[in-house]
Write a structure and sequence with these properties.
The complex is a heterodimer of chains A (109) and B (111). With 109 residues, chain A is mainly β. Chain A contains no helices and eleven strands. In chain A, the strands form two sheets. In chain A, strands 2, 4, 5, 9, 10 and 11 form a six-stranded mixed sheet that branches. In chain A, strands 1-3-8-7-6 form a five-stranded antiparallel sheet, with no helix packed on it. In chain A, β9 and β10 form a beta hairpin. Chain A is globular, with a radius of gyration of 13 Å. Chain A starts with a strand and ends with a strand. With 111 residues, chain B is mostly beta strands. In chain B, a hairpin with a 6-residue loop joins β9 and β10. The termini of chain B are far apart. The chains are: A mainly beta (109), B mainly beta (111). Chains A and B meet through β4, β5, β9 and β10 of A and β5 and β10 of B.
Chain lengths: 109, 111
């Protein structure tokens, strides 16, 4: 089946720093999505990408759908303490949605 | 606007017991999904329902059954719980099948 490799597994950064995380796959997807999960909550959609090469921003977040359709990255600029959480990528092909294992982000004030 | 709601929030079962997890959405979405989340892993799709009256298996359907009761409600049943089914279960819904909106989860422990 389609597997997603998400990296890094965890990040410890200082408030104000920029963050970058990515997902790669051996299979192509026609949609990439990025979610954030706070402790004890369900994932919340941050950004959805529908076309290869698409670059989309949502406030301080920017995500790109890789040209090969096998990867995507998420950047967070000027991190703040409330950015703490687990970030998941997800790739969709037809009715099949696969999730990465997550990047756990810790922001030190 | 409640979005996606799930009950119960927590549940402890003994091996072999059965239970049904309930999910409801008030966004008039056609598609609904059940996932499980285990430590260090992403969410894995158990079953989904692309529209009222249809259900399909996902990546890890063994040991589970589902019912799409109406457009709003999608339940997940464990007929004979096993310790391997200890997990956090999330329900999600979607209008398009692409952008999914998740409930708060049910934390299930099977002893």
């Amino acid at each position: 089946g389609q597997q997603l490799n998400q990296s890094p597994q965890s990040m410890f950064i200082q408030e104000g720093e920029d963050v970058s995380m990515n997902c790669t796959s051996s299979s192509i997807f026609n949609t990439w999505l990025w979610y954030k999960q706070d402790p004890g909550e369900g994932p919340v959609l941050l950004i959805a990408l529908y076309k290869a090469g698409e670059l989309t921003s949502n406030g301080r977040l920017t995500a790109q759908f890789g040209i090969t359709r096998k990867d995507s990255f998420l950047n967070i600029s000027a991190s703040i303490p409330s950015d703490v959480g687990i970030y998941f990528c997800a790739g969709r092909w037809n009715n099949d949605m696969r999730f990465g294992a997550g990047t756990r982000l810790t922001v030190k004030p | 606007n409640a979005g996606v709601t799930q009950t119960p929030k927590f549940q402890v079962l003994k091996t072999g017991q059965s239970m049904t997890l309930q999910c409801a959405q008030d966004m008039n979405h056609n598609s609904m999904y059940w996932y499980r989340q285990d430590p260090g892993m992403g969410l894995r799709l158990i079953y989904y329902s692309a529209s009222e009256g249809t259900t399909d298996k996902g990546e890890v359907p063994n040991g589970y059954n589902v019912s799409r009761l109406n457009k709003r409600e999608f339940s997940l049943r464990l007929e004979s719980a096993a310790p391997s089914q200890t997990s956090v279960y999330f329900c999600a819904s979607s209008a398009t099948g692409y952008e999914q909106y998740f409930g708060p989860g049910t934390r299930l422990t099977v002893t």
